[in-house]
Amino acid sequence: MKAFFEGIQWLFENILFILHDFLRALELDSWFAANIFNWGFMIICAVAIVYWCKQLMIFDEKGEENQDTTAHSFLK
Question: What CA–CA distance (Å, rounded) separates 6 from 8?
Fold first, then answer.
């Protein structure tokens, strides 16, 4: 049973965390490059927020947005 868990440990430490080890070593050279995934997620979120705001403006200009306070049952 001990060998099974040691095998799982070896798999994670030597195979599955190679990218994390690379990014950890890269941080000593370039902090911005080491956080490339974070930058990517921030860009995706920023684009999504801009798209969402544009859609809200489109519905607001068309007058299709229901701004009545009784639009939702929990606001009554």
Answer: 5
Mean pLDDT of 28-48: 94
Q: Is the dihedral of CA 40, 57, 76, 72 positive or negative?
A: negative
Vertex 53 angle, CA 52 and 54, to 5°? 90
Among 47, 23, 41, 46, which Cα is nearest to 33's? Answer: 23
- The residue with tokens 């929990």 is 74
pTM value?
Answer: 0.61
Number of Cβ atoms within 10 Å of the Cβ of 17:
13
What's the CA gap between 14 and 53, in Å, rounded? Answer: 44
Q: Is the pLDDT of residue 15 over 60?
A: yes
Q: What's the pLDDT at 76?
A: 56
